[in-house]
């Protein structure tokens, strides 16, 4: 798949390389392509076996041959080829089986006839020829390109063992290494399949209504926007859409992680990959295949896999130092003791054991497997994490700032009070009107004209309450006033619909009005006031309710040692009432977007801070926070693409779940690093003491790799 890169004139080629899944192979490719003129950038996704090459078009035909010279079999991904196509099995199992029998025979004959017997040598050579030639081939390629990866080290160690007469052991080492590589590849596939399982959720066909009214099964990729699709009970939904007919409950767990089915009726959204459980639904397609919410989740997880977490970057740097140090130690072990009178064959054997121990594969592979398992486990539960860095950082959060409306609350407020209001009563107000002043219209008509143009939940509540009783009119020069309300011109007069802050800025707050506003706010209500021609015409009181999960989520956050802060543009009185109900530690009210940004910046001085929001006005604070959480991101392009962590539904309990997953991930990362280094250290000491053999070193190296992979995969079972 080639497309223009970010630099002018550059293109990108994406290759799938089935036998590329180890960091040492990445290093080999970097050494080859990195020095090629015209190649600008290389991006690796080892978990998906993908390589992205940004290059000059003139060198396009040189890249694949260069990869083949390294022993790889690259397949360039084209637009008509699925990038998630599973790797093709290339192992010859019968060869490995025969090699294993030959190696065991060599060991048995070596015990009875001696290691130098001709039958032992023949059996060992057969085992090495059948089971070790791929390792030798890759090892030679690595040495020729100046790289000492595990294949090069194994090739040197086995050759050295043959030269000093350890035929049975050399054969057994080759077979054990080939078998362990096979097991390791299957273990890594489990992590890959965790993401590939998401890809398989959406069915490949959909039942689409034709022009003549018939319903026919069509390929999902060919269904156009606006098409009418029918989904029967028990079927998976193929494409994102909006219900136009029918009623059913839909299992949205694959997208949002919700444990219970969600009722769907006319106007409700549907997501590809979810399951229709009861009635038949007809829906209109709102996103084509490849651009659905599920697709965006998959793309985000894949992109997150390609990025290196801080621990992985540290491990890579450590490994780049560790390997040369152990190699130098192996050379010294082979030369210094014999020069001081030691036995040459004995110390050369010990140095060969050290060569096998020198490979840091277990250490290097432990971090990406663990991080990818954590990312996949989170995605299954409706928590979309945009990179390993955020997964690791989540455990350090000390403060969590939460927007009120739409985050802690339902974001479905309803109007509770409506009161016509004129300053100092109608008679006094009329006495001050200039001659020829036009009679006032029904305040609700002005209110719905302004509220109907706003997407704020409070405005929507007012509009819904009065839309059946009065009609609005056209609004000129409509302007949103962030943190205050809205402004517009109706019938030539400037009108405002806004909160207490706006009224105070307009200098229209009187003692009588303030008393009434306070009375409503003490009941936990949000007061919105209508102004026309510098007069307050009416008051509207709106009340929101806490989400059912807010109290439990806040309680869990406190149990995890995370302090909470409510940020809202609402008044302090009603904000305090809502905060007490939710159990939030601290409240900041009457805030503008820039105030939220300032408070988040101040909190970050006390420790890592997260910000949870659902609106555009929260964007600056979300960006400034160490981790920005977007609420209810399902179906929302912007939230999925811009948030550090997107909660696919509105369940706040996903916040403590994310922090627990982050802590579990970091604990497993530390365990894996300790396992990999600890096992290496033990065998390093055993090798120097002459108590470790080559096959034991192979067990130590590959066994450690299998241990850390299995440990990392535990996250998928959380």
Describe the structure.
The protein folds into four domains: 2-76, Alpha-Beta Plaits; 93-195 and 301-373 and 663-717, no CATH class; 205-291, Calcium-transporting ATPase, cytoplasmic transduction domain A (Distorted Sandwich); 414-543, Calcium-transporting ATPase, cytoplasmic domain N (3-Layer(aba) Sandwich). It contains 25 helices and 27 strands. The strands form five sheets. Strands 15-27-26-25-16-23-24 form a seven-stranded mixed β-sheet, sandwiched between helices.
What summary fits the major beta sheet?
7 strands, mixed
Anisotropy-based shape: elongated
Low-confidence stretches: 1-6, 86-90, 423-439
Structural class: alpha+beta
**Care to count the β-strands?**
27
Mean of pLDDT: 83
Roughly how many Å apart are the termini? Answer: 36 Å
- The share of residues in helices is 40-55%
**Sequence of strands across the biggest β-sheet:** 15-27-26-25-16-23-24
What's the alpha carbon Rg, rounded to whole Å? 33 Å
Strand content of the residues, in percent?
Answer: 15-25%
Number of helices: 25
- Count of discrete structural domains: 4
């Amino acid at each position: 798949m080639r497309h223009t890169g970010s630099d002018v004139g550059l293109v990108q080629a994406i290759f799938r390389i089935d036998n590329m899944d180890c960091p040492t192979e990445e290093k080999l490719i970097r050494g080859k392509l990195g020095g090629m003129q015209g190649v600008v950038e290389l991006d690796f996704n080892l978990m998906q076996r993908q390589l992205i090459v940004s290059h000059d078009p003139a060198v396009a035909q040189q890249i694949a041959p260069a990869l083949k010279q390294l022993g790889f079999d690259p397949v360039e991904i084209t637009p008509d080829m699925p990038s998630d196509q599973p790797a093709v099995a290339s192992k010859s199992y019968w060869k490995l089986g025969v090699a294993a029998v030959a190696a065991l025979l060599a060991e048995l004959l070596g015990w009875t006839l001696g290691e130098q017997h001709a039958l032992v040598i023949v059996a060992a050579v057969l085992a090495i020829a059948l089971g070790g030639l791929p390792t030798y081939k890759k090892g030679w390629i690595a040495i020729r390109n100046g790289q000492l990866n595990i294949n090069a080290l194994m090739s040197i160690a086995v050759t050295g063992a043959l030269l000093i007469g350890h035929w049975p052991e050399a054969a057994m080492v080759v077979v054990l290494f080939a078998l362990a590589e096979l097991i390791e590849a299957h273990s890594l596939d489990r992590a890959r399949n965790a993401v590939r399982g998401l890809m398989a959720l959406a069915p490949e066909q959909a039942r689409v209504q034709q022009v003549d009214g018939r319903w026919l099964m069509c390929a999902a990729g060919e269904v156009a926007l606006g098409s009418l699709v029918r989904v029967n009970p028990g079927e998976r939904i193929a494409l994102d859409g909006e219900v136009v007919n029918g009623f059913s409950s839909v299992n949205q767990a694959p997208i949002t992680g919700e444990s219970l089915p969600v009722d769907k009726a006319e106007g409700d959204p549907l997501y590809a990959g979810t399951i229709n459980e009861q009635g038949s639904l007809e829906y209109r397609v709102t996103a084509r295949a490849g651009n659905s919410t599920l697709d965006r989740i998959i793309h985000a997880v894949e992109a997150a896999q390609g990025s290196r977490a801080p621990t992985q970057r540290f491990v890579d740097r450590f490994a780049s130092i560790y390997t040369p140090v152990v190699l130098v130690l192996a050379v010294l072990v082979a030369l210094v003791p014999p020069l001081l009178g030691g036995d040459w064959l004995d110390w050369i054997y010990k140095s060969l054991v050290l060569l096998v121990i020198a490979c840091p594969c277990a250490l290097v592979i432990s971090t990406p497997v663990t991080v990818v398992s954590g990312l996949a486990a989170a995605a299954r539960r409706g928590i979309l994490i945009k990179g390993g860095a955020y997964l690791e950082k989540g455990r350090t959060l000390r403060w969590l700032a939460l927007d009120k409306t739409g985050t802690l609350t339902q974001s479905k407020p309803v109007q509770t009070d409506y009161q016509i209001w004129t300053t100092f009563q109608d008679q006094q107000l009329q006495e001050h009107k200039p001659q020829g002043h036009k009679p006032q219209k029904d305040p609700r008509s002005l209110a719905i004209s302004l509220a109907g143009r706003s997407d704020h939940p409070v405005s929507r509540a007012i509009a819904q309450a009065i839309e059946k009783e009065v009609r609005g009119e056209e609004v000129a020069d409509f302007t949103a006033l962030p943190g205050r309300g809205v402004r517009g011109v109706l019938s030539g007069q400037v009108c405002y619909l806004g909160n207490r802050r706006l009224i105070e800025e307009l200098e229209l707050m009187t003692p009588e009005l303030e008393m009434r506003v306070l009375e409503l706010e003490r009941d936990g209500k949000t007061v919105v006031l209508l102004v026309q021609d510098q007069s307050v015409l009416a008051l509207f009181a709106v009340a929101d309710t806490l989400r059912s999960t807010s109290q439990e989520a806040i309680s869990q956050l406190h149990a995890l040692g995370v302090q909470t802060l409510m940020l809202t543009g609402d008044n302090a009185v009603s904000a305090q009432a809502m905060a007490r109900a939710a159990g939030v530690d601290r409240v900041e009210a009457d805030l503008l977007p820039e105030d939220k940004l300032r408070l988040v910046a101040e909190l970050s001085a006390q420790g890592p801070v997260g910000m949870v929001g659902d609106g555009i006005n929260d964007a600056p604070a979300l960006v400034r926070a160490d981790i920005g959480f977007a609420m209810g991101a399902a179906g929302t392009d912007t939230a999925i693409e811009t948030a550090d962590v997107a909660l696919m539904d509105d369940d706040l309990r996903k916040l403590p779940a994310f922090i627990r997953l982050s802590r579990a991930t970091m604990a497993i990362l530390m365990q894996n690093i300790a396992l990999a280094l600890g096992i290496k250290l033990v065998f390093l000491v055993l090798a120097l003491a002459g108590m470790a053999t080559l096959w034991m070193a192979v067990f130590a190296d590959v066994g450690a790799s299998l241990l850390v992979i299995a440990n990392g995969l535990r996250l998928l079972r959380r």
